[in-house]
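thought: user wants a sequence for this fold. calling inverse folding tool.
action: design(structure=
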């Protein structure tokens, strides 16, 4: 497995192998944030195809509750491994470590990530990797469905933080 920073040509492959909800591409949005300097979009590759991704959002989490509790804390967002049978093989952990390494290179003292309150599997992984609960919040996001309608989602989440060891 290899982890790389997303390139323009990777967006179509991500759409093909790891779809986004609805008609709009969250991969293109994450890549655009990377191009604007607001994030770094990482892609995990196995045998020449994308099998996972994660975005380190240098601008932090957009939820006001999190911004108050963790000002200036970058957020690891959009962590996914697909297809499902590849989960629990270290791909997600490798993406998290790669994002943490990027943060250390920038001198960032801590990182954070949100996890849905009902996602026990992910919560257990993040706890093993040293992430601790900071605050509960509502993750509000929208996407465009296949009919072109904008749909809103609200997910109850907990924001987790981890202090990074300095080099």
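)
observation: tool returned 167 residues.
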């Amino acid at each position: 497995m290899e982890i790389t920073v997303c390139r323009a040509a990777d967006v179509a492959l991500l759409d093909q192998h790891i779809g986004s909800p609805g008609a709009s591409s969250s991969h293109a949005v994450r890549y655009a944030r990377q191009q604007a300097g607001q994030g770094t979009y990482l892609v995990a590759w196995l045998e020449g195809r994308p099998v996972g991704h994660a975005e380190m959002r240098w601008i932090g989490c957009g939820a006001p509750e999190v911004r108050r509790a963790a000002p200036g804390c970058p957020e690891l967002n959009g962590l996914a491994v697909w297809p499902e049978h590849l989960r629990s093989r270290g791909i997600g952990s490798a993406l998290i470590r790669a994002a943490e390494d990027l943060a250390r290179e920038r001198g960032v003292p801590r990182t954070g990530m949100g996890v849905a309150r009902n996602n026990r599997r992910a919560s257990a992984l993040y706890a093993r990797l040293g992430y601790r609960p900071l605050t509960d919040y509502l993750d509000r996001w929208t996407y465009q469905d296949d009919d072109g309608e904008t749909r809103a989602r609200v997910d109850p989440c907990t924001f987790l933080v981890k202090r990074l060891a300095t080099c």
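thought: summarizing for user.
answer: Here is the designed sequence. The domain at 2-163 is CATH 3.40.630.30 (Aminopeptidase).
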